[in-house]
Amino acid sequence: MKDRIIAVSSLVLGLSLSCAGPDPDTPLPLGTQQDGLGAPSGAIFTTLVDGSRVNANIYDNKDDVYLDGGPGPNAPLDAAGLDDGTYVFQVTDPSAQDLLSSDAARCRVVLVSGGVITRRLDWDGSGTTASDFSAHLNGNDACHRSGRHQQGTDIDHGPPAITVQLMPYDDTPNPGGVYKAWMVTLEGFIAGCAQLGVTGNSALTATDCGYAPGNHHGFLGADSKTDNFKVKNRGGRPQPTITVHKFCDLDCDGVQDDGNEGCLSGVAITVTDSSSATVCSGFTSGGYFDCQLPATGTYTVTEDPGAGMDVCGATVNGVAAGATTSVSVTVSDARVPALVSFGNTPTDGSISVSKTCAVGSRGGIDGFSFSLTGTDVFGLSVSASGTTSNGGSLSFGDLAAGTYTVTETVPAGWAVIGPDSCSVNLSIDTSLDSNGEPACTVPPASCSFENVALGFVGARTPGFWCQQVQREAGAPGQEAACFDRLICAFGTIDAIADAALASFGGDDSLFDLNGDGDMSPAEEQQILCPESGDAEANQCRRQALALLMNLAGHLGQDDAPECGAACSLIGVSSSQPIVIDGQLGTVGGIIDALESGGCSDELHALIKGINENTNTVLAECPASL
Prior knowledge:
Layout: E1 7-9, E2 44-47, E3 58-59, E4 66-69, E5 85-92, E6 109-113, E7 116-123, E8 133-135, E9 151-153, E10 162-165, E11 178-185, H1 186-195, H2 202-205, E12 211-212, E13 215-216, E14 219-220, E15 225-231, E16 241-248, E17 268-272, E18 278-283, E19 288-292, E20 297-304, E21 309-316, E22 319-322, E23 326-331, E24 338-346, E25 349-357, E26 369-376, E27 381-387, E28 393-399, E29 402-409, E30 414-417, E31 421-426, E32 445-453, H3 462-472, H4 483-490, H5 493-505, H6 521-528, H7 539-559, E33 577-580, E34 583-586, H8 587-597, H9 601-611
Parallel strand pairs: 3-15, 16-24, 25-32
Antiparallel strand pairs: 1-28, 2-4, 4-10, 5-6, 5-11, 6-7, 7-8, 9-10, 11-15, 12-13, 13-14, 16-19, 17-18, 17-20, 20-23, 21-22, 21-24, 25-28, 26-27, 26-29, 29-31, 30-32, 33-34
Helix pairs in contact: 4-7, 5-7, 7-9, 8-9
């Protein structure tokens, strides 16, 4: 079992495989196109004339290579089907700097219908839209005579699905015999040529519109589908050869699939003999690396995936060799090159975590613990943990594609605002670079969490107000720091209660025990200082009246400056933030609910929390735990 080590650090916060239907009597109108530019969906690939695939896209001769598109072998028509429309194709070297197709672009136009190639098309001699092309009638014309873009029948999907021969095209300058097939929508080709200064009919009559970085002879990398292939027959006496093939393995099964599993260049390959001496070393180009051997025998082929990449599986002559970067290969016939394939997947993904305060200046908070769990594309369980620092940031790195969950641990004295976990699906970027090869990286993701600090804000419980009632009634209890100032502002406890009801409570039916339409001092005392026998029955009333009196006391201090300096420990304001079901609310919102609906169980719990400081929020969060 492969071990996956996940890095955790503190931080400040399509393409085709292999170096990747409708009634024929009622074809799609030739003018039908996808809206706008950009790469069409689905895939293209190279095949033999009958649509059958060859191992790793390695062909004996150039004229054996045919263009196919849409679903791969044994796949339904809706799997990787191309967008319907009119397309232009070409052949280049792997870097795409050299155009190898040797006939005019007008000869390299096909129709896609129902997700597959169904027609070769003829140009009417003027115009650059799909309506200027019609179905080819199989005559021996200059574009489609023998050896030029012949068609075959796709055995996987049958008529009207066809294959189209890529010839004529020149020999590749690539020493490994590697080529790249391209396909782009007609309007994408016309737009690409226009960028190179070739416009109108000239784009179709010319063989080559030119080259600029990112614009490969009218084929823009971001708008095109590509497929690398290799031709073995380059003349000369056969020499023992090992060909190494490297691709981006999206599902990490070690097998190159139809779709988006394109070839990778720049991967270091080393071939050694039985004495561990190096026979060849170098880098893949267009997804391939060839090693000419001094003699037949057994050799070891090793790849270095490089930082941020890991091996999914290797094959030797089509036989699975497991998830290894080094395989043994026996070459017994100089006429039959050995083929080694390595499927790799990126492990450069990361998930950054941001922890901020939900109130005040909304600064970052250090010291919060987070855990990461999930399953990656290797099928392995992944777990890691870390703590925020450097302004509330954390990063989990070295992640492969997969599904992950980041969860925070909420310590005592804090509350999370919103979810306490974040689900992330990391996927592999299959977009094409300027050379038409896959990015094969895992783009970073992020999760944000907001918290508030809970703390004492001066809310007074029913017990506090009961002591004041008893004091005025001649049974003084414990003195309170701000009681004298409250009396200065309101005169009596009864006046404080009246002010509270008048300002915040609306009618006082909630506190009207005897039903006479008003709350008497006796009822007030009974609510705030009940006998033990009925304490539970009056809990909601007690807590609600205490909260209203807190608010009245808070405003009373503001209204009576002659009473002395305001006491910061008395009362809460109606705008005081509180936590309600993982979201921020205000005390005023609780009062509004109290006025409109009375004392529900849920409302009582919120009022009690305000009075007892279990869900009141500090105006600012500490910078760290």
